[in-house]
Amino acid sequence: MSAHSVENNNIFSKGEGRRAAQTDWQAYAAAYDLLSAHNPEYQSLLTGFEGFLSQLNGPPVIYDIGGGTGNYSQIIARCCPNSQIRFIEPDSGMLGVAQRKLSDHDNIIFENAGLESAGAPGDADLIVSIHSLYAMPDQEDRLADMRRMLRPGGLLYLVDLGREMNVSDWRRYLFGHLRREHGLLGACRIFWQGREIAKQNANIRSSQEDGTYWTHSGDELATAVRDAGFEILRQEVVYRGYSDLLVCRAIDL
Ligand SMILES: C[S@@+](CC[C@H](N)C(=O)[O-])C[C@H]1O[C@@H](n2cnc3c(N)ncnc32)[C@H](O)[C@@H]1O
Question: Which of 7, 14, 22, 30 has its CA 20 to 30 A from that of 94?
Fold first, then answer.
C-alpha cells in the first residue's frame, strides 16, 4: 500500500451506507445559469479555465464530465473549434440546457450517463471535471475511470467541492455582491428568480452531512488523484476556500 493509499487514509469511508442523493439536478438546471451570470467566483473559475485552455495546443479529444448546463464546453467549443468534445452528463434537465446552448457546434457528442456507466473510449487528451466528482458514487473508482479514459500523458483539469457548503455564508456573499451591482431591489429580484439554487445548495449540504456526497481537504483529494495514476502539476484552493483545483497528468499505468 503506497504512502498515498486511499484505504490507509480512509478518506472515502464517509460515503459507506449511502442513501440516494437528494439534490434535484433537474430542478437546479433551470436556474443554474443564474449562478454563472451573477456569481463572481463561478465567473473566475470559467476565466481561469479559459486561460489554462489557451496555453494548450487544441487537444484533439476533450471530455467534459458532469458538464451540467455546458458552460465549460461552450468555452472549449469556442477556443478549440477543431477538437472533438464528449459531453457526459446524467441529468436530462442539465443535458437539455447544454444541448440547446451548444446547438451551433457540430463537434460535440452528448452522452446522457453518469461517469460510472459512460461508454466513452480511452482516447481523451484532456478531461475536464468541474464540481461533479463529489456528487458521483465511489470517487476512487471514478478517478480510475478518468485515468483509463485518458491517453498516457493526457491532462485532467479537476475542480471539486471539498468542504461543506455553508448556505448562509454563500447567501450573504452573493447578496452583498448583487446589492452592490444591482441595488437592493435588483438583488432581491435575482434572489427570488434563483431561489431554486438556494434550495438545491441546502440539499447538497445535507448530502455532504450524511456522507452521500464526498467532502475532502485538498491533501485528501491530491492523495486520491495520485493513487488513481496521476501526477499533479498544479494545485490551488478556489471558490472561496470551498473547492480545490488540480491540474494533473496521466502517468503510464
Ligand atoms: C454542480 S453541477 C456542475 C456542472 C458543470 N460542471 C459546471 O461547473 O457548471 C454538478 C453536475 O454533476 C453531475 N453529476 C452528478 N452525478 C454524476 C455522475 N455520477 N457522473 C457524472 N456527472 C454527475 C450533475 O448532474 C450536475 O450536472
Answer: 14
Question: How much is the average pLDDT of 143-163?
Answer: 97
Whether ligand 1 lies within 6 angstroms of the CB of 136 is answered as: yes
For residue 32, what is its C-alpha cell? Answer: 443554474
* Nearest partner of 52 among 157, 183, 201, 191, judged by Cα: 157
Displacement of CA 84 from its chain's centroid (Å): 20
Which pLDDT tens digit goes with each residue over 18-38?
A: 444 468 887 778 788 877 788
Q: 166 vs 9, which has greater pLDDT?
A: 166
What is d(CA 107, CA 84) in angstroms, rounded to the nearest whole number?
5
Tell me the C-alpha to C-alpha distance, in Å, between residue 116 and each of 55, 120, 167, 176.
Answer: 30, 10, 29, 39
Rounded to an integer, what distance in angstroms lies between the CA atom of residue 81 and that of residue 85?
Answer: 10
What's the fold here for domain 6-250?
Rossmann fold (3.40.50)
What confidence score (pLDDT) does residue 156 get?
A: 98
Paired sense of beta strands 243-250 and 230-238, if any = antiparallel
**The C-alpha cell that represents 243 in the structure block:** 473547492
Rg (CA), the chain: 18
Residue in 43, 64, 132, 160 to alter for ligand 1 test, most ligand atoms within 8 A of Cβ: 132
Q: What's the pLDDT at 10?
A: 38
Atom of ligand 1 nearest to the CA of 36: 9
- Asked whether 70 lines ligand 1 (CB < 6 A), one says no
Please give the number of the atom of ligand 1 that sits closest to the Cα of 71. 9
